[in-house]
Amino acid sequence: MKIVVLDGYGLNPGDLSWDALQALGDVAVYPRTAQGQLLERCDGADALLTNKVVIGAETMDRLPGLKYIGVLATGYNVVDTVAARQRGICVTNIPAYSTDSVAQMTFAHILNITNRVGHYAAQNRQARWSGSEDFCYWDTPLHELAGKTIGIVGLGNIGMKVARIAMEFGMDVFACTSKSSASLPSGIQKTTVDGLLGVSDILTLHCPLTDNTREMINAGAIRKMKRGAILINTGRGQLVNEADVAAALRDGQLGGYGADVMCSEPPAADNPLFGAPNAFITPHIAWATYEARARLMDIAVGNLKAFISGKPINVVA
Prior knowledge:
Blueprint: E1 2-5, H1 19-22, E2 26-29, H2 38-42, E3 47-50, H3 57-61, E4 68-71, H4 81-86, E5 90-92, H5 99-115, H6 117-125, E6 149-153, H7 157-168, E7 172-176, E8 188-190, H8 193-199, E9 202-205, H9 219-223, E10 229-233, H10 242-250, E11 254-259, E12 279-281, H11 290-308
Parallel strand pairs: 1-2, 1-3, 3-4, 4-5, 6-7, 6-9, 7-8, 9-10, 10-11, 11-12
């Protein structure tokens, strides 16, 4: 079996091993693949592994021997699944590998905004504390999470993990979810998106990107939020209107924005969020802990093994 990994650098920049995958066939690993290189690199391939390289119907038609596409992520919009199904190509994804890591990043952003650890560490490298007249100092608002209300949009694996962590902090937890109220754990109150906007001190987004959720956080939605509320986005960049978020940060309607995702990745250098006050952006790394990537690798290999054995798992097409 010829196996081609189209963009392996994100998963494995060198600290993991491809050995388990190489035991399954003749493997070619490319750090990155431009669309213009796709057909040449995939020629004769039985199986492709992709994270962000798009594989559409035209590509599938040019690869008559292709039997399997493994997406190295949970989201699989980079593959035309309808075309794959029509051509008998099995497509799999990697579910739930990064739940703990993304929930951890969600709270890294929350705690950064409420406690400003990075800000004070940077100031003290410049002798700010050393020159203080008092035993301590602070020049930003500092807030406890206990007693605050967190609103969670989406209660999948990550959203539920965030809810459980929030309850351990003593927060009041409200959620917009398709789950029934009766099925929710004690301590989580179900409401609508508008309900969340009105009550949340912190609003965090963990829902899929759909036509209904695209730019769900825009100027109109932000006006319904408490003045000074914190917005967190570790879901999808396009869940928010970035220009509207930047404007709300500038006028103080939003007290902070912590995001690990942006509408375009990599983002333009002149993105308005980069110049907005209290905007804290990390470069899509919530999923990238060593532990989560090792888990992803194991599941990816397991998916391909299962396909070869005739009993595919994690099939999305």
